[in-house]
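dumping this here so i dont lose it again. seq + smiles for zinc ion
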Amino acid sequence: GLVVTRDPGRVPPAFVPDVEDAETPLHEIKRKGGDLRYCQKCSHYKPPRAHHCRVCKRCILKMDHHCIWINNCVGHENYKIFLVFVLYAATASFYSLALMIGGALHSVPKDEQSGIDSPRKSLVICGVFVCVMTLALSILLVWHVYLILHNKTTIEV
Ligand SMILES: [Zn+2]
Ligand SMILES: [Zn+2]
């Protein structure tokens, strides 16, 4: 909820780069440091580390990536909320994985004879799904912890 509603960090329309940059002609600013400094789609200057999102159709401050799950950009303003969300989701899937393993170990062997719809079989399907979820979320979490430690965004790697 919060990540979706919270603005990822809009570039102020009046943003003008430092005096140094302003003295440079526009076409020379464009590829300074391998990074576009002027957004032609928004027709304004981009602060350092800001990127244009094609999906949101605007520039995002310290943009990390456009998240398809929340249909919003993850940037400067909502990065912490995003990270807490990932942390909670990872913890939840670890917890359900532990519950599943516990459930599987304690299930009665009789279930195996009761056919296709046995609780054990659905537990296995669920288990595989939770395993994949836990793995994906763990990778995502480790990846972002790595990025924070190196002060980088997904775009800048
Ligand atoms: Zn833009
Ligand atoms: Zn976006």
